[in-house]
Specification:
Helix content is about 35%, strand content about 10%. It is an alpha/beta fold and about 230 residues long. The protein has a 5-stranded parallel β-sheet with strand order 3-2-1-4-5, with helices on both faces.
Length: about 230
């Protein structure tokens, strides 16, 4: 009988690849997404498509309204940065950082894992092309895993919980190549922080620029839909 795993699934490129990698390792995957007040809620439709395409055993969407706190361009009336160059993106913590988001989401995943009797949680954080987010670093993942094994019934009873971050040391191009090897349809995914009313990517925010660079570095064309004039030639 396959081991169960909870996989955080935003609907973007990284989380879709993470789901495919977990499934390739033989896990029965239970996908978890969040409606947290994000301005790019179109990603939830993408998450549902990805979960179906990759054969997740189940897919839940949890509602947590982080607009109550704001503090991020994704949850408050703050402009999403556009047209930043690679060097600028690589330095500092951008305003698209959502305070404590990964900690909140991993905590929900931890709760569901206990209910499912799953000892594994997968998250698609990446410390190479990560746009400066502090909760995407290896030491953060290691610290959360230690906490999980101290703070849960499963951990206290000796059923060790593992937080998997299989993309942590990969470039975006490497992630894309790995996903394609595993049959991920990136045309189903959505990464943009500021899509238009039809769900098309802007091509100019940090997430779009990192994604487009990844496809270019891999010698490939991004199959995602971009708004008119948003996609570079």
């Amino acid at each position: 009988m396959p081991r169960k795993a909870v996989v955080l699934l935003s609907g973007g490129l990284d989380s879709a690849t993470t789901l495919a990698m977990a499934k390739a390792q033989g896990f029965e995957c239970w996908a978890l997404s969040f409606r947290y007040g994000q301005r790019h809620a179109v990603e939830l439709a993408s998450a549902a498509k990805v979960a179906g395409a990759l054969g997740a055993a189940g897919h839940r969407v949890a509602d947590i309204d982080l607009r109550a706190f704001g503090g991020s361009a994704l949850t408050a009336d703050i402009a999403v940065p556009k047209d930043r160059d690679d060097d600028t993106i690589a330095h500092g913590i951008p305003v698209t950082y959502v305070p404590a988001r990964n900690t909140i989401m991993l905590s929900f995943a931890l709760a569901w894992a206990e209910v499912l009797d799953a000892a594994d949680i997968f998250v698609g954080v990446n410390a190479v092309d990560y746009s400066g987010y502090p909760d995407c670093r290896p030491d953060y993942i290691a610290a959360f895993e230690r906490m999980a094994n101290l703070a849960t019934k499963a951990g206290v009873e000796g059923r060790r919980l593992t937080i998997h971050a299989p993309l942590i040391d990969l470039t975006k191009a490497q992630i894309i190549r790995r996903g394609l090897e595993l049959g991920v349809d990136y045309g189903l995914t959505s990464s943009c922080y500021d899509p238009d009313g039809q769900g098309r990517a802007c091509g100019r925010c940090d997430a779009c620029r990192l994604r487009l660079k990844g496809f270019a570095d891999a010698g490939l064309t991004d199959p995602a839909a971009y708004d008119i004039g948003g996609r570079p030639d």
